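Structure (tokenized):
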């Protein structure tokens, strides 16, 4: 697929690539020689990327993927962990120390995860916190925390929100000996779209382009209402959703959408 012009960082030596194509940001985990494993240095860089996504009103959706066709991410770089004895900064709050995904960076712009290959351990951060998950038909999901003496917690709690509890527990407790194939993950709801091998990124970008055509403010508030509902009783979630809906009534997009529909033209959305 030809992306065309945009803001990009494309050095083959960079462990994480950031590219902007139109209204879409593309983040690529770029360490294919070691399974796109996540290092602390990559964490600092991805926080910068999320900050750019938050602050740049021209960016309306993000796609995150891995380099190559074998691995999306094999999780934490264990050589890095072995050398430092840490996977994060220390003993602060999770909001200060775990900053891989859009949700962990308080980003209320949609993220589409393009799982191009095996996704393991910490790579699951991106999957469970994305709004739409596209996976290659040959991809697999596996959790290896307990195999290497670590606690499966943050990503695994996310798995339990998107999978049947038994499957999330089996992945966590059985470790590398249980692999969830993408077709089965699709059946269970962890994956939202299956793609033929080699077309995962293209499929994800197509979904992101559809999202980017919609009112950015309406999209953001809709995301907040749905994600928040996961943590609230139904009646409270509906009340909160209604407050967000009313908030949008004062936004120019609320009038522009119906007007553009009646006039049979593309809407001109306001970017805050």
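Design, position by position:
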């Amino acid at each position: 697929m030809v992306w065309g012009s945009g803001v990009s960082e494309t050095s083959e030596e960079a462990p994480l690539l950031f590219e902007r194509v139109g209204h879409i940001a593309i983040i690529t985990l770029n360490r294919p020689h070691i399974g796109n494993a996540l290092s602390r240095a990559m964490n600092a860089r991805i926080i910068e990327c999320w900050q750019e996504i938050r602050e740049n009103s021209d960016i309306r959706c993000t796609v995150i993927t891995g380099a190559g066709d074998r691995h999306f991410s094999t999780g934490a770089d264990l050589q890095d962990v072995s050398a430092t004895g840490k996977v994060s900064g220390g003993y602060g709050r999770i909001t200060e120390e775990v900053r891989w995904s859009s949700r962990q960076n308080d980003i209320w712009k949609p993220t589409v995860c393009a799982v191009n290959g095996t996704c393991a351990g910490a790579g699951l951060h991106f999957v469970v916190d994305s709004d739409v998950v596209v996976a290659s038909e040959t991809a697999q999901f596996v959790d290896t925390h307990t195999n290497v003496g670590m606690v499966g917690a943050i990503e695994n709690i996310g798995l339990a929100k998107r999978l049947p509890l038994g499957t999330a527990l089996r992945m966590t407790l059985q470790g590398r000996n249980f692999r969830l194939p993408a077709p089965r993950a699709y059946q269970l709801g962890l994956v939202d779209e299956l793609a033929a091998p080699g077309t995962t990124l293209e499929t994800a970008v197509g979904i992101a382009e559809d999202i980017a055509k919609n009112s950015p403010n309406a999209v953001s508030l809709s995301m907040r209402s749905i994600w928040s509902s996961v943590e609230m009783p139904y009646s409270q979630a509906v009340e909160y959703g209604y407050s967000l809906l009313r908030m949008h009534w004062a936004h120019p997009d609320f009038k522009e959408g119906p007007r553009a529909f009646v006039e049979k033209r593309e809407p001109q959305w306001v970017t805050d």
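Reviewer-requested clarification: The longest strand covers residues 16-21. The chain is about 40% helix and 15% strand.
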